[in-house]
Every structure is written in structure tokens, then in C-alpha cells.
Design a protein that fits this description.
Number of domains: 2
Distance between the termini: 42 Å
CATH superfamily of the largest domain: Dihydropteroate synthase-like
Radius of gyration: 19 Å
Order of helices and strands: EEEEHEHEHEHEHEHEHEHHEHH
Largest sheet: 8 strands, parallel
Number of helices: 11
Helix content: 25-40%
CATH topology of the largest domain: TIM Barrel
CATH class of the largest domain: Alpha Beta
Number of strands: 12
Strand order of the largest sheet: 10-9-8-7-6-5-12-11
């Protein structure tokens, strides 16, 4: 969709079996859509406009050389002492490189390396400090897996790409540093454009939306247009609705129930909810490190709605769940072929 006034959220009918259309060229099929319009009740329809159907079904281009026809794992590698989940545990450049190798061995498709915490209330970090935290680790991990630099700052992004990063993961969606889109275009890197309301130091104070699903949709659409204007092509863009970034628990759940709406933007979707506070509150896990089961449950829900990239801490555990889910749902065609043979 081009705007929230005429937004379709997919209702997958029966993955890989009875649906007429393949969602984003991936593993979920659908026949009907749920039409979402401001101030109106959702309406299910199979009468999907041709341009909308094209955006919903067109196969997504590879991201960092990885095909988007199956779910991918982006591993979180925090080179920062104040991460909400594992701050200070990596232990400098050598520790970050060792941890990165471990994550790849556990099944990570992408390494996302960050040098500044974006947890609620986190303080700002100087460009020089953030660069010094991530660039040596990026350089030391080149060739093991594609690397993403988790930063909002254009100067850090440029240095990270020079060190070997192939993607910039900007949690502000170009809002923090107005030069970011131009710098990404200049470097030729891919970019993940995330939605956030406010800054980490204040984003959870009192987040408000008229309609969180459609407000986030429109904001992402505007940011994607900003990327196009800067010269970043569609085949180098990923979008992220920003779970937990300026959103209440109710906002997070509303997005997760209908996250397939963002396929209407015609781009691969990244979902980052690993170990977040609402997962622990609902799941009864106070310590962030105890929130893997809740993270896995929500990750599988995202997979069932066709989300392509999942940003997680617990790679080995999530990968195990992903493999079982894929064997049940994505292996059906192969299984039937084996039975016929």
C-alpha cells in the first residue's frame, strides 16, 4: 500500500497448501486480505487490486547475498558495556570476535554489531567511542558471515562500511542523523530502516498513536521514500516496525498480531523482539537471559506471517525452533515428492 488509508493485512489461509498467492515469494500462501482503514472495522476480501497484489507477492531480492525465500537469523553482537541484556559480557575486541565466531557456528546468517545501547533510558555515546567499539570487531569477523552495523550515526556507519560491514541498521530510520541516508547511498551498503518514536532516553515515557499499525506503516513508507530520494535502491532496503521502540506492550502486541501488513511496502521485513521487557512481563521471566522461550514463540508467529529476518540473542535455541518449524511447514512439498517417488 502507499498509505494507511487503504492498507491490506494478509490472512494466510494455510501455509504452502491451499492459498492462491505466495506471500513475498516466500513460504506462506494466502487467498484473502484483511482491509484496514482508519476509523473502520477490518474487512476480509479476496478482491485485491492488481498493484497491491504485485507488492504482496513479488519475490523479495536477496539481502546481503541471502535469499529471502526462507527465514534468516540475524545475531545480536553487543560491543557495549550497557546493553540491557548482555552488557559488558563480550569483553573487548577479542571477546567480540570470539562471540561472533560462536554465533555463526550456531547458525547465524548475519551478524549485527552495535556499539551503543538503545535500551530505554540509554545515554548517548560519542562517535569516536562507538567507532572504536565496533570497527575492530567488524574487521576481525569479515568473511564469516555478512555483517550489519547497528548505528544511528552517519560517521559511524561510514567507518563501519570501510571496516567491512555490508549493512547499516539504523534504529532511528534516518531521523537521528539527517545525513545517514546520503551516507548509506554513497557507501553502497544495504540498510535496515526501523520505526521508532522518540529517542532511547525518552521513547518509553508516554508513546501514543492514533492507530499504531497504520501510523507505523505510514512512517515507514515516508522513510523508504527518503531512502529512494537519497539514491538507495529498493533491493538494498529492509524495514523493521520497531517493536519496543516508543511503543507500549499493547502497541507491540497489535503490531505482532498483524505484522504481515508491512509486506504491503514491498520490502523484506526484519523483526527484533529478542528478550524485550514485554516478553518477560507476559512470560513471567524477570531476567532478560530467561526470555528465550517467549522470544521463540513470537519469532515463530512472525515466521507464520512471512517475516524474513529475525534479530535474536539466543541463536542456537532459536535456530533449533526454526529448523523444526521449517521441517513441518516448509518441508511439505519435498515430503510429498519423496512419498510419490
Amino acid at each position: 500500500m502507499t498509505g494507511a488509508h487503504d492498507c491490506a493485512n494478509l490472512l494466510p489461509t494455510d501455509p504452502l497448501e491451499t492459498g492462491r498467492h505466495r506471500l513475498a515469494g516466500g513460504w506462506v500462501r494466502f487467498t484473502e486480505c484483511e482491509l484496514l482503514q482508519r476509523g473502520q472495522a477490518p474487512r476480509v476480501t479476496a478482491d485485491i487490486p492488481a498493484d497491491v497484489l504485485e507488492r504482496l507477492t513479488a519475490p523479495r531480492p536477496d539481502v546481503l547475498g541471502l535469499a529471502m525465500d526462507r527465514p534468516r537469523i540475524m545475531a545480536i553482537l553487543n560491543a557495549t558495556p550497557d546493553s540491557f541484556s548482555d552488557g559488558g559480557l563480550v569483553g573487548g575486541t577479542d571477546g567480540a570476535i570470539a562471540r561472533g565466531r560462536e554465533l555463526v557456528a550456531q547458525g547465524a546468517d548475519i551478524l549485527d554489531i552495535g556499539g551503543q545501547s538503545t535500551r530505554p533510558g540509554a545515554a548517548e555515546v560519542a562517535v569516536a567511542d562507538e567507532t572504536a567499539r565496533i570497527c575492530p570487531a567488524i574487521a576481525g569477523l569479515q568473511g564469516l558471515a555478512p555483517i550489519s552495523a547497528d548505528t544511528r550515526k552517519g560517521d559511524v556507519a561510514r567507518a563501519a562500511v570501510q571496516a567491512g560491514a555490508e549493512m547499516v541498521n539504523d534504529v532511528s530510520g534516518f531521523d537521528f542523523d539527517p545525513r545517514m541516508a546520503g551516507i548509506v547511498a554513497e557507501t553502497g551498503a544495504a540498510v535496515c530502516i526501523m520505526h521508532a518514536q522518540g529517542l532511547p532516553e525518552n521513547m518509553q515515557d508516554d508513546p501514543r498513536y492514533g492507530d499504531v499499525l497504520l501510523d507505523v506503516y505510514d512512517a515507514l513508507h515516508e522513510r523508504v521514500q527518503r531512502a529512494f530520494a537519497a539514491g538507495i535502491p529498493a533491493d538494498r532496503i529492509v524495514i523493521d516496525p520497531g517493536i519496543g521502540f516508543g511503543k507500549t506492550e499493547a502497541h507491540n502486541l497489535a503490531i505482532l498480531r498483524r505484522i504481515s501488513v508491512y509486506h504491503g511496502l514491498g520490502l523484506p521485513i526484519l523483526l527484533g523482539l529478542s528478550r524485550k521487557r514485554f516478553v518477560g512481563r507476559i512470560g513471567g521471566a524477570e531476567a532478560p537471559q530467561a526470555r528465550m522461550p517467549g522470544t521463540l514463540a513470537l519469532t515463530l508467529e512472525g515466521m507464520g506471517q512471512g517475516v524474513q529476518i529475525h534479530r535474536v540473542h539466543d541463536v542456537a535455541d532459536i535456530n533449533q525452533g526454526l529448523r523444526l518449524w521449517r521441517a513441518l511447514h516448509m518441508g511439505k512439498d519435498d515430503e510429498q515428492k519423496d512419498l510419490r517417488d
